[in-house]
Amino acid sequence: MAVAAPGPTHRLGVLAPSSNSNAESSIQRMLDGQHDVAAHVSRFRLPPALSDRIDADVLGDAPALLADVEPDAVAFHGTSGSWTGFPGDRDLCAQLERVVGAPATTATLAVRAAIDALGVRRVGLVFPGPPAIAERIAQQYAADGVEMPVLSAPDVELANAEIARVGADWIDALMRPAFREDIDAVVCVGTNLRSAYRVAAFEAEYGIPVIDSATATLWHLLRLAGAARPITGWGLLLQG
């Protein structure tokens, strides 16, 4: 008779927008072969306006439901704090820690932590949303000590579900303008953009780190959960 395998040693909690179809699939692929780690997802509906800050009211019951699996760390898998402000995301983390009982991060704070970990200060921004929001992201990062001298955003505005459907050629065309000789790294902000799958190729081509927000979220979750380890195939951040 086969003996049942023990449960994963480390449990990661993920709060994903209901329109995000990249969070679960990308995490599962990145964690392929990491049998001691499992990710558990709870969903919530995003507010209608990009300018709305994500808080406990927006998340509703999702954090409390996630707490039932007793995760070792939890993350809001979204980047709205990149333009609504880092302080709001830090407040959100404090709320999550009280409800879930585990250390918390957000995709925005994970990217910011990755920038510090890689020691970069001049970065190109890739953002699949409106250029006006990209400008606000650059302002928030500048106020926090990170320069964004080049911004790449599409000419057309896509809904969150549409962002997840764009192909590799579209993603490549969006990413490539962000690479300039005077920058230290490129940051892709938007966890429903499947840029994680293009990171390794662009790093090999340009020789600088690429920080994808979905990848950074998993990287930070692993660190907070005490489960940090090198994971190959997804770029320097997870590999280091």
Description:
The protein is α/β, with parallel strands linked by helices and 240 residues long. It is 41% helix and 17% strand. The protein is built from twelve helices and eight strands. It has helices at residues 23-30, 56-59, 62-67, 81-84, 86-100, 107-118, 131-143, 160-163, 168-175, 199-206, 213-224, 236-239, and strands at residues 10-17, 37-44, 73-76, 104-106, 122-126, 147-152, 185-188, 210-212. Helix 6 crosses helix 11. The chain is globular and about 45 Å long. The model has no long low-confidence stretch (mean pLDDT 94).
Summarize the structure.
The protein is an alpha/beta fold and 240 residues long. The protein has helices at 23-30, 56-59, 62-67, 81-84, 86-100, 107-118, 131-143, 160-163, 168-175, 199-206, 213-224, 236-239, and strands at 10-17, 37-44, 73-76, 104-106, 122-126, 147-152, 185-188, 210-212.
**What pattern of helices and strands is seen along the backbone?**
EHEHHEHHEHEHEHHEHEHH
Strand order of the largest sheet: 2-1-3-4
Oligomer: single chain
What is the 3D form?
A: globular
Helix-and-strand structural type: alpha/beta
Main sheet record: 4 strands, parallel
Low-confidence stretches: none
Helix amount: 40-55%
Radius of gyration: 17 Å
Mean pLDDT: 94
Strand content: 15-25%
Question: Count of DSSP E strands?
Answer: 8
Number of helical segments with 4 or more residues: 12
N-to-C terminal Cα separation, in Å?
Answer: 40 Å
